[in-house]
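The records we work with from here on pair a chain with its fold. Taken together, the tokens spell out the fold as the letters spell out the chain. To see the layout at work, look at the sequence and tokens printed below.
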Amino acid sequence: MEHRLFDLHCDTPYRMYKEGQPLKSNSLHVALDKLAPYSKYAQIAAIWSDNTLSDEEAYAAFWRILNNFKNEIEVNRQRAAICRSYDEYAHLPDKYVAFFLAIEDARILSGNVERIREVYDAGIRFISLNWQGENSLGGGYDTNSPLTHLGHTIASTALDLGMVLDVSHSSARVFDEIAEMAASLKRPIIATHSDSNSVAVHPRNLTDDQFTRIKNSGGIVGISLARSHLCGKGNYTSEINDIIDHIEYYLGLDGQHTVCLGCDFDGIETTPTEISNISELYKLAEAMSAKNFSDELINAIFYQNAHNFLKKI
């Protein structure tokens, strides 16, 4: 079957900047030259803020990382583009690679609400308020802390601008508060790279109730390839079957229109044994087909669910 891919999360812009690697061909998980198996490819590319930096330092680094990535897109403008809307994406020529921009850990806004407008104008359309621990906006997945007053303001402003809030790294209390805020505005929320806590216990994974709330909001959930998310805490080797276990569980929660892929490429140290980088992700589709997943369902998970979400919002 023809393979199309719309992945909800990678950390490639940060790694490219940090290691001085180009977009066209590199030793990272994601590169333009690794996309041959896919007839169409779109990627939400997150800019992560190094947690060893202060908020202000991280904000300055954000612009360096973003500008470096945009420069690489310009170098490869005959093959790739940054999109700010579905219309821009829909009008790209065939075989073009589409990147949508995200912020992972909005602490970089450093208490300045106007900065949310600055990053929006720069092309950011997806944003997570947390990464881990507590920041000025609220608690990460490894805490039980709620949103701060500033966090409420930033989240509300982001929603007003039309940005999508990503709850993958949020605490349970922040998840609840963001879900309620978005519901009051009839807006969806997403988890770009979060597996099922019922399959593998990990504080980054979603409970059944959280998955269902995302689904009911009209949002989507990306399957992470992080070993600990797939297999739980401990020294495990992850395999393609572990990925399929999480997909099948989410499908059992009526998630056939919700489940996507959010591989976390270039944000994870190890990948499942059969998938060394994005060029080998098609092996997951082949394994799903061997387990009698229909071509339609495979395409939905690999591409169509994310595409439909983007078109809808």
Remarks:
- Strands lie at 4-10, 40-48, 80-82, 97-104, 124-128, 134-135, 138-139, 164-165, 221-223, 259-261.
- The mean pLDDT is 96.
- Residues 55-75 form the longest helix (21 residues).
- The chain has one domain: 4-312.
